[in-house]
Amino acid sequence: MTDLPGIVVTGASGRMGRMLIAAVAASGKARLVGALEREGHAWVGQDAGVAMGGAPIGVLVTDDPLEAFAKAQAVIDFTAPDATVGFAALAAQARAVHVIGTTGLEPAHLAKIAAAARHAVIVRAGNMSLGVNLLTQLTQRVAAALDADWDIEIVEAHHNRKVDAPSGTALMLGEAAAAGRGVDLAAVSDRGRDGITGARERGHIGFAAIRGGDVVGEHDVIFAAAGERIVLRHIATDRAIFARGALRAALWGQDRIPGEYDMLDVLGI
Ligand SMILES: NC(=O)c1ccc[n+]([C@@H]2O[C@H](COP(=O)([O-])OP(=O)(O)OC[C@H]3O[C@@H](n4cnc5c(N)ncnc54)[C@H](O)[C@@H]3O)[C@@H](O)[C@H]2O)c1
Ligand SMILES: O=C(O)C1=N[C@H](C(=O)O)CCC1
């Protein structure tokens, strides 16, 4: 058992943190060796299993990433952009694979993550599910087959606690559509329309975000032309799909050469 890769889960008390702790414990393919929360959080010092309302699992929640990462072969991180950038440097120092699910990363965050990836393996994706990663490929293919007579709109819905928009998944789908069209997404993105916006520009890719209730995550890629529409849709009903993907990435990353990878690399699709 002790030969199994040791995994630290950051953001242990979060919606994804709890899922990840359960997924690692149930996998039989990895050991949970650390659970991290932010300083001052009520879970710090408690057994992670007990904090989750179950039986003890022998891992105390800590607020010290250095101590936790020193024991880890992989760090699975679904937290917040500033926290993730700090963890990237520390995970690289510990030569642990860093699996990043955190979304809302700005270019400055991404530059620091790229710097850390010079020294260690980082797997990052705005969505770790098999279904969404397959959908990015379908989106790219459909976008490549259609010209700009087909307006591309990406509509996403998430729970009312989500803090970033568009979702990381919507941005992945936008990048895939832009790649299919052979354009730079930044140059053609329409985000947050409001008021007298003027008519839609030909060739642009639009984003719209819905927030409400406990929606796990829903994404439509709409290709709309005169007289017809194609809608590619993914609906997540269980966060376990993200946790399973993240654990798969942590195992896949063992013994790879340093660099930044995504879930297409992990899934081999
Ligand atoms: N890539 C994917 O497949 C995927 C799937 C689901 C969610 N996400 C993303 O994961 C992130 C977290 O989502 P969530 O719903 O679990 O959010 P959440 O708010 O429930 O959990 C985030 C947790 O991170 C903790 N945290 C914040 N800063 C920290 C720090 N410095 N040290 C340790 N812990 C810290 C918070 O205390 C909290 O417990 C978001 O960016 C979300 O968009 C990505
Ligand atoms: O709940 C969230 O937050 C999610 N975030 C990811 C995103 O931004 O796309 C993946 C879906 C769930």
TrEMBL record:
Metabolic or biological pathway, per its Swiss-Prot or TrEMBL entry: Amino-acid biosynthesis; L-lysine biosynthesis via DAP pathway; (S)-tetrahydrodipicolinate from L-aspartate: step 4/4
Compartment(s) where it occurs, according to its Swiss-Prot or TrEMBL record? Cytoplasm
Residues engaged in binding NADP(+)? 38
Swiss-Prot/TrEMBL keywords:
Amino-acid biosynthesis, Cytoplasm, Diaminopimelate biosynthesis, Lysine biosynthesis, NAD, NADP, Oxidoreductase
> What are its E.C. numbers?
1.17.1.8
Q: Where is the Dihydrodipicolinate reductase N-terminal domain?
A: 7-128
Active-site residue list: 158 (proton donor/acceptor), 162 (proton donor)
Q: What is this protein called?
A: 4-hydroxy-tetrahydrodipicolinate reductase
UniProt lineage: Bacteria, Pseudomonadati, Pseudomonadota, Alphaproteobacteria, Rhodobacterales
Q: Which gene encodes it?
A: dapB
